[in-house]
Amino acid sequence: MLKLPLTEYIFHYQAQQQITFPEYSGTLWHGVLGKALKDQYCYTPNSPCQGCLFANQCGYIQLFKNIALQNNDFIRLYQSIPAPHIIRVRSERYIIKPFQSFEINIILIADTNQYLNKLIIAMQKVGLNGFGKNRKKANLKQVSQKTDLWQSSNSTNNKIRIQFITLFKPNGKMLKTKEFKLNLWVMGLIRRISLLYYFYTSKKLRVDFIDLKKQTQNIPILAQALEWKYHFNLANRTNQHQQNTGWLGWIEINLQDYPDLIPYLLLGQWLNTGKNASMGFGQYQLIEID
After folding, report:
1. Measured between alpha carbons, how far is 241 from 47 in angstroms, rounded to an integer?
2. E strands in 2-84
3. Cα 273 from Cα 154, distance rounded (Å)
4. Backbone angles phi, psi at 270, to 5 degrees
């Protein structure tokens, strides 16, 4: 049974002033939250995180720096690991009026839930520090949570639509092709789940990855409407616009002969896929079709 403990935390804010959030504001939230966590935790701000003596106790490193702290042959294969948080944001630009309430959702994986108290303090500081050039502020009013996220949706029809909600930015082998390769996308998702499972539960998935790879190469595609999109966001550090490219749209598939892949696709709805998945990119939803 594929089971990765996930908890989604909903941070409820009330705006003090009018706040404009850009498209794919996960990059904005990632930047301001990372800074707040580093200010809260870091004892040696001018030193690199790699090799820090406080790494095992540092919530900033554990949640944000993607550094493998264990030391074994398997881990040495990876210079970085997937971040154990996923910021879930709206894809469109939106405006929050003064005294209006708004929410931001963050998913924590397995062992990193131990840093919830520090995360709440950091999120409170994020609102008080403000957003954008004019530092428009907001008050954190409440934090609620959801557990057993994907287990509540543990079945699906064989015929499904994979609907991308936010831009999927290819990484790995998919960077080398101009086409959307379903098999590479599914294997990228399986690899992401495997790494998250290992690094944050200290267990390895006991599955036949060679067989799963063969299965992904034969999935019947029923229909698709995918477009290559461009998106620009303003980088906090450089104050310059960065170009993001990736896929939006949907693809319909038939998994009747490949039931082993269904649990990974179900779980992936909460983990996102591709580059910058922790910032909200690559979010998708499964929709049953006739």
Report:
1. 28
2. 6-15, 19-21
3. 19
4. -100, -15
Kindly report the pTM of this predicted structure: 0.88
Residue 76 has pLDDT above 80, yes or no: no
Domain extents for the chain? Answer: 6-147, 156-288
Residue with tokens 């009330």: 14
Tracing tokens 């804010």 back to the chain, one arrives at 13
CATH C-level class of 6-147: alpha beta
CA angle, residues 25, 19, 143, in degrees to nearest 5? 70
pLDDT tens digits, 24-56: 999 999 999 999 998 888 888 788 877 788 777
> Is-contact 83 89, C-beta < 8 A?
no
Contact 162, 250 (CB under 8 A): yes
Dist CA 149 CA 107 (whole Å)? 10
Report d(CA 19, CA 135) in Å as an integer. 9
Nearest to 80 by CA among 175, 196, 159, 162: 196
**Short-list 168, 126, 162, CA closest to 143:** 126
Beta bridge partners of 147: 7
- Condensed to tens digits (0 to 9), the pLDDT of residues 192-234 reads 999 998 888 878 888 899 999 999 999 999 999 999 988 766 5
CB 70 within 8 A of CB 155: no
What letters, b where the CB count within 10 A reaches 16 and e where it falls short, cover 37-53? bbeebbeeeeeebeebe
In percent, the amount of the chain with pLDDT more than 90 equals: 58
CATH code linked to domain 156-288: 3.30.70.1900
